[in-house]
């Protein structure tokens, strides 16, 4: 015979010749044998991470009835005698790792008595003792690599725990061991001899055969198939994790168990039959659908195991035979589930046809990039167990297998489903360095939702397969976005200011350096300028540019534009001339407010220029009364140009109603009163300045405007905070960091508002000890300054965006605009009153970024934040 022949194709005579040859080689080798490919990989892993209990296999049996301990002990040692692999250790000889088979060895059976404990205490103690036993390391150089322990609960109740290292066994081996325990105990408890026939071959025979076989030409087609199948495959499936991936995985894990109902089980079997697939393929396709939603990856590899005992002589052996196959599926094009199942079936059939190649051999051939934080080729496993559960019958004893979580995980995720006659029982094993249990429980629920959806409609596209339970949908859509709040929806900002003027006309409204204005004085000057602007044609929807230095005139000009009915375009004088010219050209603003010193640096433009310093003699002649316009809250308040980091700057159009809602929300939380003093530091060309400039003057507080020079110098800004006795300041994290670096010691009367950039945990911890309260703000310009505000009270590793402000909705959506589950990466989309009208004269971009709100029963939009 040749080594490339399949053993099942050999005649009885040929098999006898092969066995005789292997036995002769064993005699010549003096009990020293090469390792199998799988053993070699596990041995290598053990050298990198000694004592790794993730590679321990356990079995736990509860004996109810009168147990003959001597017969049980004899039974275990007879099994050790029968199976050479249970008497095998591993060593390095001449630089090569090998198996050493020890002729005889005895296995102990120590007993732990916990009879004195209550039933509840016993169950806890069992869990603790079993886990301790599982996690106790093996020394691969010292046999046996299996141990057993007996727990005595009472005279008629015992628990047998046996642990073996994966290098000498697999899941099938546990079943073999239990079958032999039952057969041998029956005989020995009656003082009879063993009824089991001697094993025709041993594990080392398989090892020798495997090594010979995979030196032959037959390997080429297998290797060629797998190389083609896995060419260009992603190294890592980027699952959304609860914790950062550690540099070195220690394989700590846990397991969540759940069941799939009888009705769902039979519906899945029926669907499989209709589609010409197996239940394994259908469940695998469903699992890939779940991972597709979780990762947005269209190239997903999942590992699976095969028993690899396709020769009858191997079925009764204990040993590491199981092989692993990598099942890679292309999910591009948003296929229907039926189409995906067809792809999965094709991949699975191809893998089965090439399953003989040891996974370890494949890894060696492919040489994937090694990373100690995750396993090569794939990080997620799927296994379907559908072998019948053996009936455990012993004289005077009832045997019950126990499922105990061993606290380990070989992969990021392993979904193992066991098929019983009535239902499907599932275990979702997860790496606890990456995931928290609540996340895994949600994932299990989402998997069940996927299964329910595909049996109901296998023609639906993957993007339409729902993951969320009804409760989750309610939570995401209603409970967490229940932000409806009354606000002055019929009042514009200048009208709210005018109402405050009536209440506190003589209170100081605004301070700049050594100048100040009362509420009445500020209103009078703004009114005079507003009347003048109306004579220049300013009315609702007319854009007015304003380019002035930080000063009282800046606030007067902004208020006047709003009072006249117009919408302001802020232009920071420090902007490059080209940017100012672009904005003026783009908007064709008919009026520009500025100062005489700036006229020369503003590009020539066909506009009416009003200098707020040299032209004031004309403005002072205008009426001091509040002007009237046809303005409504649906009209524009301002058009502000973004930085243009993704192209040319674009004008964001914000209506009064959005600004009114925002300021009313900020008035409530973080909350401002007439007792507050707000120090304004932000350039008014940033939308955040609208909060600094308008919020204080609609609540009766005092606004202090810091000059450009003070804002640019952290030491001077620190002194200004102290000098003005400021109780509120908004700034970016970068500004607060500069203040701390300059020695700012804080102010326990100060409310800190932090926005514009992500607030880091370390900075937040520092600020919390230096102020009255700290608020973290988030929001894009397109949704009116901030869309979320949350008070930071404690800090872990991250400062979260947290809660939407009033009349605002926050959704995380996938690329198909479907809600994603909690913890799954998606795009933040914002809805509500705060949305901008769109981009100035950019209907294409407006349509791209402002999409219909699929969750509203009225016409509404969402802004895609990107």
Blueprint of the fold:
Blueprint: H1 12-29, E1 32-34, H2 37-48, E2 56-65, H3 69-82, E3 88-93, E4 96-101, E5 111-113, H4 119-135, E6 146-154, E7 157-165, H5 171-188, H6 203-213, H7 219-230, E8 253-260, H8 262-275, H9 279-295, E9 299-306, E10 323-330, H10 337-353, H11 359-366, E11 380-385, E12 393-394, E13 397-401, E14 413-419, E15 424-431, H12 437-456, H13 470-479, H14 493-503, E16 508-512, E17 515-518, H15 519-535, E18 543-547, H16 552-564, E19 567-570, H17 577-587, E20 591-594, E21 608-611, H18 616-619, E22 636-641, E23 651-655, H19 656-671, E24 677-680, H20 689-699, E25 702-705, H21 708-712, H22 714-723, E26 728-731, H23 733-741, E27 747-754, H24 761-768, E28 771-778, E29 788-792, E30 808-813, E31 827-832, E32 838-839, H25 843-849, E33 850-852, E34 861-864
Helix pairs in contact: 1-6, 3-5, 8-9, 9-10, 9-12, 14-20, 15-16, 19-20, 22-23
């Amino acid at each position: 015979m040749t080594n490339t022949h399949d053993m099942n194709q050999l005649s009885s005579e040929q098999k006898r010749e092969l066995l005789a040859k292997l036995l002769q080689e064993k005699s010549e080798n003096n009990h020293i044998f090469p390792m199998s490919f799988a053993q070699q990989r596990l041995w290598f892993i053990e050298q990198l991470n000694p004592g790794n209990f993730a590679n321990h296999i356990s079995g736990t049996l509860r004996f109810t009835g009168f147990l003959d301990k001597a017969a049980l002990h004899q039974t275990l040692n007879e099994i050790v005698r029968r199976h050479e692999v249970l008497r095998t250790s591993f060593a390095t000889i001449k630089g090569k790792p090998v198996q050493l088979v020890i002729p005889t060895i005895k296995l102990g059976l120590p007993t732990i008595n916990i009879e004195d404990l209550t039933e509840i205490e016993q169950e806890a103690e069992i869990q603790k003792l079993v886990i301790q036993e599982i996690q106790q390391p093996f020394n691969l150089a010292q046999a046996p690599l299996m141990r057993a322990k007996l727990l005595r609960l009472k005279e008629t109740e015992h628990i047998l725990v046996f642990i073996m290292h994966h290098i000498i066994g697999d899941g099938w081996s546990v079943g073999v061991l239990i079958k032999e325990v039952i057969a041998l105990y029956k005989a020995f408890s009656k003082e009879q001899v063993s009824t089991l026939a001697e094993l025709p071959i041993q594990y080392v025979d398989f090892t020798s055969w495997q090594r010979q076989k995979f030196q032959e030409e037959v390997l080429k087609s297998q290797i060629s198939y797998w190389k083609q199948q896995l060419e260009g495959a992603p190294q890592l499936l980027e699952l959304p994790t609860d914790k950062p991936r550690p540099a070195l995985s220690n394989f700590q894990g846990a397991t969540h168990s759940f069941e799939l109902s009888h009705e769902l089980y039979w519906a899945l079997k029926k669907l499989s039959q209709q589609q010409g697939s197996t239940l394994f393929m259908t469940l695998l396709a469903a699992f890939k659908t779940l991972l597709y939603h979780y990762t947005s990856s269209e190239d997903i590899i999942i590992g699976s195991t095969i028993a690899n005992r396709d020769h009858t002589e191997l079925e009764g052996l204990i040993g590491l035979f199981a092989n692993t196959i990598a099942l890679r599926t292309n999910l591009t094009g948003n296929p229907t589930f039926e189409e995906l199942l067809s792809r999965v079936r094709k991949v699975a059939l191809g893998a089965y046809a090439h399953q003989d190649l040891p996974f370890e051999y494949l890894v060696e051939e492919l040489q994937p990039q090694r990373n100690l934080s995750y396993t090569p080729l794939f990080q997620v496993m799927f296994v379907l167990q559908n072998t019948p559960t053996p009936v455990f019958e012993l004289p005077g004893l009832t045997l019950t297998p126990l499922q105990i979580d061993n606290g380990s995980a070989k992969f990021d995720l392993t979904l193992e489903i066991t098929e019983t006659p009535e239902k499907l029982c599932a275990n979702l094993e997860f790496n606890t360095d990456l995931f928290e249990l609540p996340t895994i429980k949600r994932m299990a629920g989402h998997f069940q939702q996927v299964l329910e959806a595909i049996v109901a409609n296998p023609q639906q596209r993957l993007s339409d397969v729902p993951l969320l339970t009804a409760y989750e949908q309610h939570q995401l859509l209603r409970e967490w976005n229940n932000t409806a709040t009354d606000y002055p929806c019929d009042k514009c900002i200048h009208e709210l200011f005018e109402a405050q003027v009536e209440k506190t006309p003589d209170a100081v409204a605004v301070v700049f350096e050594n100048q100040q204005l009362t509420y009445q004085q500020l209103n009078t000057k703004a009114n005079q300028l507003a009347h003048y602007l109306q004579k220049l044609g300013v009315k609702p929807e007319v854009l007015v540019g304003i380019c002035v230095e930080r000063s009282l005139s800046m606030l007067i000009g902004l208020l006047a534009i709003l009072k006249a009915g117009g919408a302001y375009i802020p232009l920071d004088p420090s902007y490059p001339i080209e940017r100012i010219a672009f904005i003026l050209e783009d908007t064709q603003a008919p009026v520009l407010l500025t100062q005489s010193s700036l006229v020369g640096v503003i590009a020539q433009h066909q506009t009416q220029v009003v200098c707020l310093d040299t032209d004031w003699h004309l403005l002072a002649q205008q009426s001091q009364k509040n002007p009237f316009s046809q303005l409504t809250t649906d009209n524009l308040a301002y058009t502000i140009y973004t930085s243009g980091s993704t192209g040319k700057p674009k004008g964001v159009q914000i209506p009064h109603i959005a600004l009114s809602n925002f300021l009313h929300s900020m008035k409530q939380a973080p909350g401002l009163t007439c007792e507050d003093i707000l120090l304004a530091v932000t350039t008014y060309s940033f939308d955040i300045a609208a909060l600094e400039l308008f919020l204080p003057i609609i609540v009766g507080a005092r606004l202090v405007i810091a000059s450009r020079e003070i804002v640019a110098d952290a030491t001077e800004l620190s002194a200004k905070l102290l000098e003005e006795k400021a109780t509120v300041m908004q700034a970016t994290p970068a500004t607060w960091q500069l203040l701390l670096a300059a020695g700012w010691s804080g102010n326990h009367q100060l409310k800190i508002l932090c926005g514009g950039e992500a607030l880091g945990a370390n900075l937040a911890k520092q600020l919390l000890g230096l102020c009255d309260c700290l608020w973290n703000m988030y929001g894009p310009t397109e949704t009116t300054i901030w869309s979320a505000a949350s008070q930071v009270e404690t800090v872990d590793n991250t400062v979260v965006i947290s809660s939407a402000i009033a009349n605002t909705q926050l959704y995380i959506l996938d690329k198909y605009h479907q809600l994603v589950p909690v913890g799954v990466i998606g795009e933040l989309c914002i809805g509500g009153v705060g949305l901008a009208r769109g981009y100035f004269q950019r209907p294409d971009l407006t349509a791209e970024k402002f999409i219909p709100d699929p969750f509203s029963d009225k016409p509404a939009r969402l802004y895609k934040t990107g």
